[in-house]
Amino acid sequence: MTVKATAPAHPDDLAGVRDWFRTLSEHVRAVDFVPARALFAEDFIAFGTFSDFLVGRDNTEANQWRKVWPTIDGFTYRLENVQAIVSPDRLHATGMAVWDSTGTREDGTPFERPGRTTVSLARERVGDPWVATHTHMSLFRGTPDVSHGKKAPRS
């Protein structure tokens, strides 16, 4: 077997990875934590701009999501540019995407807040929705690392 990172993913697999990113961005924009949890394995591992390893949905929600999602606006992945590397058995994928969002400075003025995500995804059967087993989310260099918006969570 010749391993290639740029081997084309099956169109259904790539569409599923894009759907995962689209769905997550909808939950982030809505500050809707409860339904977002279904996108992640219960024991998934995360890290990013603000945290070293966080293990589990509960821990990540409390120490990452709830500290960021209510403070930003317009969180949207650039879906047309999503990349995916899919295992030959089509049960594991690595998805990569860039996002755009708007942060709020302490004085209330907005700023552009772009970043990127790498996510490891798995599923039990081909055709099932992807579930995240690991995420790495980070801001682009030079982006202010704190946003001061205050939106009420939906859930």
Outline the structure in words.
By secondary structure, this protein is α+β, with helices and mostly antiparallel strands. The radius of gyration is 16 Å and the shape is globular. The chain has helices spanning 11-30, 33-36, 57-68; strands at residues 40-48, 51-55, 73-77, 83-86, 92-104, 110-112, 115-122, 131-139. The model has no long low-confidence stretch (mean pLDDT 94).
In short:
This protein is of the alpha+beta class.
Low-confidence stretches: none
Rg, alpha carbons: 16 Å
Give the end-to-end Cα distance, rounded to a whole number of Å: 46 Å
For the secondary structure, the number of strands is 8
Helix content: 10-25%
Helical region count?
A: 3
- Taken from the alpha-carbon principal axes, the silhouette is globular
Average of per-residue pLDDT values: 94
The structural class is alpha+beta
Largest sheet: 8 strands, mixed
Strand content: 35-45%
Order of helices and strands: HHEEHEEEEEE
List keywords for this structure.
single chain; 155 residues; 8-stranded mixed beta sheet; 23% helix; globular
